[in-house]
Automatic annotation (TrEMBL):
Protein name in UniProt: DNA-binding transcriptional regulator, MarR family
GO biological process, one term: response to stress
Domain HTH marR-type: 7-140
Pfam family, one: MarR
Assigned keywords, A-Z: DNA-binding
Coiled-coil features, chain-numbered ranges: none
Matching InterPro entries: HTH_MarR-typ, MarR/SlyA-like, WH-like_DNA-bd_sf, WH_DNA-bd_sf
Entry annotated with the keyword DNA-binding: yes
Any GO molecular function: DNA-binding transcription factor activity
Superkingdom in the source lineage: Bacteria
Length: 143
């Protein structure tokens, strides 16, 4: 029987890579003077790219439950990066970026691009493109 090598598994590799990238990104964000997390930044980017939306839409786009999204939005609102506008229904709020939130998206996007470029520097441009395509194929397969 072939010996199973856990550290060669796709789950181990993707989880470890993700964790290390998160740590590097968090350090890069801290160097900007902000204590915003990569997870909070992702919400800001989604809102920036997609426009105003409600909590349910954000949860669906991020593959997270509504409670997790609410906690993230609470932190972002406290930091004055998002604003919740009351909708027709008292349970429905539209979330949008504040001016400060739009500025932070630009700052964090630059920091994120630097971090990812550093990580992918071991690949040729074609290899990096192929890796991205393969990871998207895997993601679409498991959704």
């Amino acid at each position: 029987m072939k010996k199973y090598v856990f550290t060669d598994s796709v789950g181990y590799l993707t989880t470890t890579i993700s964790r290390i990238l998160q740590q590097k990104l968090q350090a890069k964000f801290k160097s900007t003077g902000s204590n915003t997390t990569p997870e909070q930044w992702r919400l800001l980017v989604v809102i920036s790219n997609e426009g105003e939306m409600n909590q349910s839409q954000l949860a669906e786009l991020q593959h997270k439950d509504r409670a997790a999204i609410k906690r993230l939005l609470d932190h972002l609102e406290t930091k004055n990066l998002v604003i919740r506008k009351s909708g027709k229904d008292s349970r429905s709020h539209t979330i949008s970026l504040t001016q400060e939130g739009r500025k932070m998206v630009q700052v964090f996007t630059k920091a994120s691009e630097e971090t990812v470029n550093e990580a992918l520097s071991c690949f040729s441009e074609e290899e990096a493109k192929n890796l991205n395509q393969l990871l998207n194929k895997l993601l679409n397969n498991i959704k």
